[in-house]
Amino acid sequence: MLKYTLAGLMLASCSDGPPHTPETRPVEHPNAGNTAIYDVDADDPYEMGDSSFLDLYPGMPLPATDALAPAGEVSVQETTFDRYWLMGEREDTLAYVLVDRPNRTISSIHVVSPDVATRAGLRVSNSFDEIRQRTGATKVVKDPEGQPLLRGDGWIHYRLTYSTGNEADTIPSESTVSEIILRHR
Predict the structure, then answer these.
(1) What is the pLDDT of residue 78?
(2) For residue 76, what pLDDT is reported?
(3) Where does 42-182 sit in CATH, by number?
(4) Source organism's superkingdom (predicted)?
């Protein structure tokens, strides 16, 4: 009897099938494309603070780093900024950074990747309702171009995508986050 039991165990261990436990399979990027609200945990690739992201914050001098790639210039009203792409570890674009030309300081950081989560677990593609539920944020402010932004915690602002037929201060609940912006209030 023992002989048949050992033979059965050896046969089962030689299976070419996938492992039965998901935690034994390697996962290169566990949260890719995940836009659901959930608490930020160790599996999240990038976490954004209330006033900084990847050790960059508005008002700091532009650092020398390989993570920033020049991307041209942007004009806002009568001011021209240098724009840099902020690249992730896999050379994916996480954000763009606007740099004030005269003093070479970071003016704002615009997160465009859903791989970046705020401490509240919010990311690009979440809805206005989800932001309100998680943070209670309802205050609408204007960006330098006069476009509405939802003000969150710290220096965080949310640019929402919605129909332009709405009044500037009225944001529909189904609006979604297209950028998470760090800028001085």
Answers:
(1) 85
(2) 84
(3) 2.60.460.10
(4) Bacteria
Residue type, 152: G
Whole-number pLDDT of residue 70: 92
pLDDT of residue 23 exceeding 50, the answer is no
Question: Confidence band (pLDDT; 50, 70, 90) for 170?
Answer: low
Q: 120 is written with which tokens?
A: 């509240």
Q: Which residue has the tokens 């959930």?
A: 38
Does residue 28 sit in helix, strand or coil? coil
pTM (whole model) above 0.85: no
Return the domain boundaries, the chain.
42-182
Give the closest residue to 87 by CA, choosing from 117, 105, 113: 113
Q: How many angstroms separate the Cα of 42 from the Cα of each of 29, 45, 49, 94, 150?
A: 12, 8, 15, 18, 27
C-alpha separations of 169 from 129, 166, 184 in Å: 15, 8, 20
Residues 6 or more apart in contact with residue 161 via CB below 8 angstroms = 175, 176, 177, 178
The C-alpha atoms of residue 137 and residue 153 are separated, in whole angstroms, by 8
CA distance 35 to 123: 7
| Other beta carbons less than 10 A from residue 114's beta carbon | 17
Q: How many residues does the chain have?
A: 185
